[in-house]
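Consider the following assembly input.
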Amino acid sequence: MKRRAFHRSPLLAGMAPLILALGTAVASAEPLDRLLEGYRSEGADPFSAERGRALWTRQVRPDAGTRPRSCTTCHGEDPRGVGRHARTGKRIEPMAHSANPERFTNPRKVEKWFRRNCKWTFGRPCTTQEKGDILTYLSSQ
Amino acid sequence: MQDHTVRVWDEPLRLFHWTLVASFTAAWLWQGDRWLHLHLLAGWIFLALLLFRMVWGFTGTRYARFSAFTCGWREAWLWLREVTQGGGPRRLGHNPAGAWAIFAIFFLGLLLAVTGIVTQGGEERHGPLAGLFGFATGAGSHLLHEALAWGLLALLLLHVAGVVVESLQHRENLALAMITGRKRAVPAGLALDVPRRRGVAMLLAVALLLFILFWLRGSLAGGDDPFLPFVGPELPHDAAWQEECGGCHLAYHPSLLPAASWQRLLREQEHHFGEDLALDPDTVRRLQRYAVGHAAETTPTEASWKILHSIPAGTSPLRITETPYWRRKHREIEEAVFRSRQVNGRFNCDACHLDADAGSFEDGAMRLSRAAGLDDERSGERA
């Protein structure tokens, strides 16, 4: 019923795009802020994009046998560019928030990939400090 | 000395004869999945020509009519005996053995076309009989179709042998006569030219040409896809499956492996080909429900049916690329192609199959020209 009333009102209908645009802007900023807020509340220091960048590009050898790995192994050198999965070759969309507004909009997805990728790259889970720094770096790009 | 000749074969008949030869040859050469749309083009033309010939057998000129050459098997047998003993009497139209060959070719040809359409409807779920038959009927019809094709080939070779023998015996090039339409009139003057019927021949030619253009309209329009796109039934999809299984590679449609395989793969998700999928139990259950509900056992596609039936009972392979059907289908592709940067592993189905995401794996949706190596090697196949 509400829907129908909405459609009948020319004023409200005219404002719909504006409302929608505002709504999505708020929605996309929110999950990231919530994530960072969560990390902070677990006792992390203020986040630094510079530390995040260093971590993002750091080359590590999780095992003696493997070639050096880093987050850029799959995501590419430029966070605004597309990446390529090291094992499967699948294209990975840009990680920088500016190039790909869909990034970091789903906290569960972010946590899942942190869990997988930190283990794969560093051979250990990332700390909340590291996660916050990386997200700060990527969202500033 | 120039013999007096008369026109025996009208133009529609000659056009029929050689286009039938061409369509059979084309269908024979274009066997295999990659050329299926061309095979079908040739097959439909073959059937249309046979049907045309049926009509022409009642409405054509004198020697084209069935009534001019139907004869009992006794007559044919006697005639064959005479030939083996040094030559029977010369005929202007078809001889009795030739007539029998023609009817046999007709019969096998029609059966060939019908089994082809049943195969297409059963196995590929396309064409006029799409979905009327199961995959098993389609597969059986496929076998029959191949046997008939060999039978027809044998018959055609016999026919050619007959033409050669008779040409030698009567010192008259019968194959040439089927081009020019003319044969020696002996005794001179007794026989009359049959009408040309050029109008009918033109009509037939134009109809064939238009049909070919229509069939190939997709490829002729240019673009990336070298093949006439087949649009198969749309398979069900699941957002969670897409999200959880489509991050590192294509989200393989569950119809590509049996339910037991998916259950095992999800149970062992912490050791997924060297990756830890780190899925929570709720997600695992949800994915399991979807995968089992749409596994190969539901056989929505030819690929699912064939993969399922190729897997030895009691086994649950984790890789699609290790199922016998997959291996058989890709055996001709060189390792270097799979290893190339464009493909990057045999598990990357979408490098070669346009519809890999949809899960349908239609013959008409292969993008081989873009896959490495295949481009140079088989550049002729764009045809």
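The CA atoms of residues 40 and 46 of chain A lie 8 Å apart. Ask yourself how this observation constrains the way the partners meet.
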